[in-house]
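Suppose you are handed a protein chain with no further information: no name, no annotation, nothing but its sequence. What can you learn? This example shows the usual starting point.
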Amino acid sequence: MYDVVALGEMLIDFTPVGVSANHNPIFERNPGGAPSNMLCMLAKLGCSAGFIGKVGNDPFGHALKQTLDDNGVSSQGMVLSDEYQTTLAFVHLSETGDRSFSFYRNHTADVMLSPEEVNRGMIDDCRIFHFGSVSMTAEPSRSATFAAAEYAREKGKLISYDPNLRLNLWESAALAKEWILKGVAYANILKLSEEELVFLTGCTDFKQGAQELLDRYENLKVVLISLGGDGALALNRECTVSMTAYPVKVADTTAAGDSFMGGFLYKMLHASASPESLSQQELLDCLSFANATGSMTTTRKGSIHALPTMEEILGLMNS
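A reasonable first move is to predict its three-dimensional structure. Written in structure tokens, the prediction is:
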């Protein structure tokens, strides 16, 4: 039985690590992809986790499979493609550690996952099914994503969703909004950044925007809003909680939102109440742990390699 199974992209992030003697940027190969980042965070916290997705049957794809295996995440649902190569992304960091991405993703393996290749047995055996919107940007992975979400709903699974908006992967902003909102219709737990909330609702009042989504989608039980250096916000139908950010020295914000989501799901899995019944204190406890998890991740460069230990998370919270 898996605590969480996630479907989506796993790819290679080339992360800047300095400048060569010839004054050229040096990039380090790192495993990445929001769903796999989150799963590795959960596994690091002691949860059972499994990945569903597609990579190339190439050195990059084998390295990604090895990463899952090394981090205790089941790769049973990973398809190795002889036809399509592993997706690549180059990460660009600002002076403050904020990141942007350049993707090499035209007909690469992650977007070529078909509905028939989705391991439904893993969804049968999970407590939470998780997905994002990057796999919705092209076919056939878009159909695979919605087929898996529909299957999870039919099986009565708790469904979590992190859109992880990457506008440069979509044909247009209008198309992105249309499909991302279709994903919200399946979600019980929705995690958004402040940018994503404004994009989907047009509302700059974060609490009001989150409440509008709760009112619009009956299936939603919890809405999370990560606000970067300004902290985070969480709502269910009973209460709203918010908190400021933990003070850390930021090196790289890559995977911070993914680890935040992993931290929240970890605490929620261990809560005594269902998501919609979490009390104000229980919701705050989940949010505080998630916030500390995301904050600690920003103190190191990279994604999966930057994920904190339980001791580091608790140490930050206790400090």
